[in-house]
Amino acid sequence: TKPLKKTRKAVNSAKEKAKAFDEKHHVVDKSKNAASTTKEKAKEFDEKHHVVDKTKRAASSAKIKAQEFDEKHHVVDKTKAAASSAKVKAHEFDEKHHVVDKSKAAAAKGYQNMKDFNEKHDITGKAARGFMDLTKKIQGSSGNGKTAGKS
């Protein structure tokens, strides 16, 4: 197929150009060297300042303190209980006041009102025609040296 051959040709051409550019400017080698140098400097910095070990110890300590705090104050259990209670109360409130049903009905009515208004006044049709006219004007002006919006 013709489009596939053109695509392959374009890909091969781009590949050859990229290879030639790399051979001339040594981009791949420079990138490898930069990455290697960065890795070595990071390793030296860590050996000098022990960042990785300090971070691991801090994380471990924070985890232990969080567990101790939870054991003392039962934060997780209280949070679960509060969430469960809120869920039950929300359900009871909805059963009493029918919030979900009223919201669905209001949304459906709002949608129907918009649909009726659009059918009466053809808003979407007018907008589509306006965009098509604007597109034609832009395309027409770009072909004759004029810029969009200027004569």
Helix content: over 70%
Number of helices, where a helix is a run of at least 4 consecutive DSSP H or I residues: 6
Stretches where pLDDT is under 50 for at least 5 consecutive residues are 145-151
- Secondary-structure element order, as H and E? HHHHHH
Radius of gyration: 33 Å
- Summed over residues and divided by their number, the pLDDT gives a mean of 90
Main sheet record: none
Tell me the total number of β-strands: 0
How would you describe the shape?
flat
Structural class comes to mainly alpha
Can you summarize this structure?
By secondary structure, this protein is mainly alpha-helical. The protein is about 90% helix and about 0% strand.
List keywords for this structure.
151 residues, mainly alpha, 6 helices, 91% helix, disordered C terminus
Question: Would you kindly provide a written description of the structure presented here, covering whatever features stand out?
Answer:
- The chain has 151 residues and is mainly α.
- It contains six helices and no strands.
- The protein has helices at residues 2-25, 27-49, 51-73, 75-97, 99-121, 123-143.
- The two termini are 44 Å apart.
